[in-house]
Amino acid sequence: MKIVTIVGARPQFIKAAVVSRAIDHHNQKSPRQRSIKEVLVHTGQHYDYLMNRVFFEELEIPKPDYNLGVGSGSHGKQTGIMIERIETVLGNEKPHSVVVYGDTNSTLAGALAAAKLNIPVAHVEAGLRSYVRTMPEETNRLLTDHLSAFLFCPTIQAIRNLLKEGIKNGRETIVRNVGDVMYDSILYYSRLAEKKSSILKDLGLLTPNSCTERFQTVPYYLATLHRAENTDDPKKLISILGALNELSKAVPVILPLHPRTRKMIKIHHLISKAHKVKFIDPVSYLNMLVLEKNSRAILTDSGGVQKEAYWLRVPCITLRDETEWIETVKSGWNVLVGTGTQNILKGLKCLERRRLTRKGMNLFGDGKAGEKIIQILVRHS
Fold first, then answer.
1. Of the candidates 161, 186, 189, the residue with the CA atom closest to the CA atom of residue 175
2. Active-site residue, from 226, 258, 268, 269
């Protein structure tokens, strides 16, 4: 059995690594004739920060068999080039199924190329909806789900979202709530991160504890900011940076700068709007886990970081008006505040006053999503 996995962004490699480990585990315990060969295709959608050899070695992720080198461009141009190049790979490899992840242009391109060649598409993170059609990610999710033969949902809510659109488990479509592969990843990497990462020391966030003669973490907030809807709108960007700067007057704010965010801050000459914020270069996945886990709270516009905050029991402020991860909001650990300076400050103050509970913390499965995905693909291929 042959599977082609298509990824294009750093988070997708981390998700795909979960399934790759499940494939290795399957191959170790199965007869040779039932083994799975995985072919990893990197579209090159994200080709810059931390996508080098260190990234793959640190996370023990297999290097891509193909790097299509698509690079940046408009949505239409980028997706079109991807489809053409993916189609060539699929024609050569002739896989039994194609696995795509999440909601990027690489996700949609992989699904379209496979569907046109009548190769079953397996969508990991199926059924997510923000119900904001202006978001490119929402278009990618919708179209990919409607092209897929296997829809691997991370939550019960995702199953419900698909049912609303007439997508249900049946003869031609397999819909399953397998849990979230990123939860598998957190469980696998969090302990490794604590052992390997020196990020807190490097950033001066550790201070000696006179009572125990050990080091303790200095209180700080962690922020991430990368969505085009926020970075490409100067008013929103100024408002968010203003809130982070205000918070920095009392508690340090650490902001790893995404290349897009750095570019927009430079273009609009906004560094003075956040002169108290501690800007740092993008960090590795392991370093990010440590920064998240030890922060006082997280402020983000990232979907993945919202979940990571939830799993690590860290209060989260989401710099958007909506989220595809509504479960984190319903649990009380995440608050949607939009991009207004005062709304951000008030939202954080309100969240920090809450008495948060760990009740219902298994909303995203049992940490075995990767294994379930492989079992289903093998059973139905």
1. 161
2. 226
Residue 248 in contact with residue 276, Cβ under 8 Å? yes
Q: Is 362 exposed, middle or buried (0-12, 13-18, 19+ CB in 10 A)?
A: exposed
Fold of 188-353: Rossmann fold (3.40.50)
Residues paired with residue 254 on neighbouring β-strands, in sequence order: 222, 278
44, 70, 103, 113, 175 from 109: Cα distances, Å:
12, 12, 10, 6, 21
The domain spans of the chain are 2-180+365-379, 188-353
Per residue in 167-194, pLDDT (tens digit) is 999 989 999 999 999 999 999 999 889 8
CB 16 within 8 A of CB 107: no
Instruction: Confirm whether 2-180+365-379 and 188-353 share one CATH topology.
Output: yes
* % of the chain exceeding 70 in pLDDT: 96
Structure token digits, residue 67: 């790097």
Residue type, 144: T
Which tokens in the block code for residue 69?
Answer: 């080198």
Tokens 């003869």 found at? 171
Q: Which helix (H) or strand (E) holds 336?
A: strand 334-336
How confident is the model over 301-330, as a mean pLDDT?
A: 94
Question: How many other C-beta atoms can be found within 10 angstroms of the C-beta atom of residue 229?
Answer: 17
Closest C-alpha among 102, 273, 270 to residue 182 = 102
Q: Which one, of 365, 270, 350, 268, lies nearest residue 310 by Cα? A: 365
Contacts of 87 (CB under 8 A, 6+ apart): 113, 116, 117
* Residue 46, pLDDT score: 67
CATH number of 2-180+365-379: 3.40.50.2000
User: Model confidence over 144-156: pLDDT tens digits?
Assistant: 999 999 999 999 9
Annotation says 146 is catalytic: no
What is the 8-class DSSP label of residue 18?
Answer: H
Is residue 92 pLDDT above 80, yes or no?
yes
What 3-state class would DSSP assign to 2?
Answer: strand
| Span 97-148, pLDDT tens digits | 999 999 999 999 999 999 999 999 999 999 999 998 888 899 999 999 999 9
Identify the pLDDT of residue 47: 60
Task: Judge contact between 184 and 177, C-beta under 8 A.
Answer: no
**Rg of the chain taking only CA atoms, in angstroms:** 21
Instruction: Scan for tokens 């291929």, then name that residue.
Output: 381
